[in-house]
């Protein structure tokens, strides 16, 4: 699980950032603060993977905070700076920030920044997926997931050992967080292409290897079906009449 922390005193900015992060289940919030001491203590104690930092109005000198932080840690903290002044970006670059966002923020710019960080720093997916429900944490080996099925506002994970695990988030939440061998083929299904043993275009169904599961797909997701077919069918032979 990848953690993030927000240094800000503006509820609107904080809530906008948290709203975008809600679409990426691999990220876990460890809170937010506008207190110099509390923010410093939280970062040093919990070592978040990513920090969003409003450089304008929170501390008298935000870059003094960064300098002090760097003297106490062995590794550089990944920080995304936020400011109304585009000239502040120069100082952010000098302090090795991973990104800079101009205020007022938009969901699109926040999302792009998160995805850039994810691409650069999280290229190797964890083998385990953590499903959270209040204080209950359940871990699934990603390689063992056959497919995901939407059930209203929950998602059922079908596992290779025959078990089914339910999570209290929508299918869309997991769609952008799983490795690229997981593809959406239906409004209610995401499948692991590594377990596909048959694609029947006539019946619009996929068969899952060594199981009785037959998953429907729709024309809306034909591009994904074609990708699965092309990636699995290295050599194909014409049918015999």
TrEMBL record:
DNA-binding recorded as keyword: yes
Keywords: DNA-binding
InterPro entries listed in its UniProt record: CheY-like_superfamily (IPR011006), LytR-like (IPR046947), LytTR_DNA-bd_dom (IPR007492), Sig_transdc_resp-reg_receiver (IPR001789)
N-terminal signal peptide: none
Gene3D superfamilies per record: 3.40.50.2300, LytTr DNA-binding domain
UniProt entry tagged with the keyword DNA-binding: yes
Protein name: LytTR family transcriptional regulator DNA-binding domain-containing protein
Source lineage: Bacteria, Pseudomonadati, Bacteroidota, Flavobacteriia, Flavobacteriales
């Amino acid at each position: 699980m990848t953690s993030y922390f927000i240094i800000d005193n503006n509820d609107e900015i904080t809530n906008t950032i948290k709203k975008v992060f809600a679409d990426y289940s691999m990220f876990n919030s460890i809170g937010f603060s506008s207190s110099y001491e509390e923010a410093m203590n939280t970062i040093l104690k919990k070592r978040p993977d990513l920090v969003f930092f409003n450089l304008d109005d929170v501390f008298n000198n935000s870059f003094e905070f960064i300098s002090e932080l760097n003297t106490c840690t062995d590794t550089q903290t990944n920080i995304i700076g936020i400011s109304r002044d585009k000239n502040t970006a120069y100082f952010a670059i000098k302090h090795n920030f991973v990104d800079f966002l101009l205020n007022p923020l938009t969901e699109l710019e926040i999302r792009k920044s998160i995805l850039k960080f994810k691409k650069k720093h999280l290229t190797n997916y964890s083998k385990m997926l953590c499903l959270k429900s209040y204080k209950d944490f359940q871990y699934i080996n990603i390689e063992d997931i056959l497919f995901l099925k939407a059930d209203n506002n929950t998602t059922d994970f079908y596992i290779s050992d025959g078990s089914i695990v339910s999570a209290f988030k929508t299918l869309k939440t997991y769609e952008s967080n799983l490795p690229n061998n997981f593809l959406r083929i239906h409004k209610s299904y995401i499948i692991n292409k590594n377990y596909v043993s048959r694609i029947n275009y006539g019946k619009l169904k996929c068969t899952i290897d060594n199981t009785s599961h037959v998953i429907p797909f729709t024309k809306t997701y034909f591009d994904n079906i074609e990708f699965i077919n092309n990636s699995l069918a290295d050599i194909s032979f014409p049918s015999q009449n």
